[in-house]
Amino acid sequence: MNDIYDGLHAAFWLVVTLDAQLIEISLRSLQVSLTALVIASAIALPLGTFLAIRRFRLRRLTISLLNALMGLPPVVVGLIVYILLSRSGPFGVLGLLFTPTAMIIAQVIIITPLIASITHQAMRELWAEYHDLLISLNTSGGQRVRTLIWDGRRTLLTAALAGFGRAIGEVGAIMIVGGNIDNATRVLTTAIALETGKGDFALALALGFVLIALAIGVNIAIHWLSRTESEGRW
Amino acid sequence: MSILPLTLRDVSVRRRGKRLIGPVDLRLDGAGLTMILGPNGSGKTTLLRVMHGVERLSSGAVVWSVPDVQARHRQAYVFQTPIMLRRSVADNLAYPLKLAGTLRSEVTERTAIWAERIGLADRMSLPAPRLSGGEKQKLALARALIRAPDVLFLDEPCANLDGASTGEIEALLHTALAQGTRIVMTTHNLGQAKRLGNEVIFMLRGQIHEQGLAERTFDAPQTPELAAFFRGDIIP
User: Fold this and answer.
1) Closest chain B residue to the Cα of A133, Cα to Cα
2) How many CB pairs below 8 Å do chains A and B form together?
3) In this complex, do A132 and B54 lie within 8 Å of one another by their Cβ atoms?
4) Cβ count within 10 A of residue B48
5) Cβ of residue A135 closer than 8 Å to a chain B Cβ
């Protein structure tokens, strides 16, 4: 109980005093996770929508694979990205290992199936509702995808936020490909793991509280900006 | 140049081994409103969907006077249960115009005109799914007519609507007819068929059983089945 109290106390002072290191780590966490979210959404939203509206061979297999990839172990993703980006790997020449870019790549791989799968479920229902109208209006494939994404944007926001939640709380993969280097690749989750390992539970808890506050804050901000619960909207 | 005549040649539609309609031969030309009548399950809606090109044919052909790509853009369809996009009234009206790449100023102008015509000018920003049944159907009809189609297909547009809403829908149809739109419509409402129809097609067991000018057909049906249908008898 004392650890939790000390953690709350430490978190309060870290935030009130605008601790430089905390700010830096928090901003890097946000930068990495939000960038990964934007890239993953750009891939997953059209992909999930496409899978909802198009019939093609191996479609069921693709959807099953996508659903299975939602449970992709982050440590394995980290390991594979590490091997690909290491000096002896095929992309070693790019020198991306132990950089925030490598962390973003790992997070994109982890959250894309999650966002695409939720998108597919949501878009399948919307497509069933819109199918006859959009066929009747002779819309092109691109117009259908754009219409569904726009009209289903509030549901898709939930998919994106689920992806963000997984990204911001992820530790295994980014620890491997980022290396938890101070002033370079350290983020909130890797810092928490480090402080816990050092036995500084108060600081670890403080960082944990900041991480939770950050995740909740981003969720509320996005909901508020998109006015999901406003009167007169869906 | 109109996309008419529309010709259906030996058309049939089968699903899971069951024949829904066919064989059907039909030529649609001229002006006015054609009413498709028939008991439940006779194939009225399937025939309408075949004409509109949204139902896959098992055999036969549907031929317009212009290439299919052009014909598809110059016809519209209103469903029995109106499908509302999860957007505002204005955005629902604007949607077909935006698909066609219409200039933004023209979209705004035509949207305002049609919203006024259907009495929703003061609710342009309201989410369309929140409208009443009658308002939704008027909006669906306006959305279909906003691109001034050559041919309009309507699948029981007034089913489940009250008298006032039905009257408003019929007024819109009269305006569309006066502006040269060819209308094909299914209905269960014989009164409405008499009020609006210029021509009648009677469907029975997936085939066109009788076809003729409305006035003559209502006065003197040529087949005992249509006479029984007009009397309100159950037709096996």
Assistant:
1) B83
2) 36
3) yes
4) 22
5) yes
Q: Is residue B20 part of a domain?
A: no
What pLDDT, in 10s, does the model give residues A139-169?
A: 999 999 999 999 999 889 989 999 999 999 9
> What is the per-residue pLDDT across B180-232, written as a single tens digit (0 to 9) for each?
999 999 999 999 999 999 999 999 999 999 999 999 999 999 999 999 999 99
- Which domain range does residue B154 map to? 30-56+67-83+134-141+149-231
- pTM (two decimals): 0.82
Q: Is A130 within 8 Å of B85 when comparing Cβ atoms?
A: yes
Find the farthest-apart pair of alpha carbons in chain A and give their distance in angstroms, rounded.
Answer: 66
CB contact under 8 A, B83 and A129: yes
A110 and A214 in a single domain? The answer is: no
Range of the domain at A212: 189-224
Domain with residue B46: its CATH number is 3.40.50.300
Task: Mutation target for A interface from B54, B68, B86, B146: give the one with most A CBs within 10 A.
Answer: B86
Cβ atoms within 10 Å of A30's Cβ, excluding its own: 17
* pLDDT tens profile B14-28: 999 999 998 999 999
Residues A57, A59, A60, A62, CA torsion sign:
positive
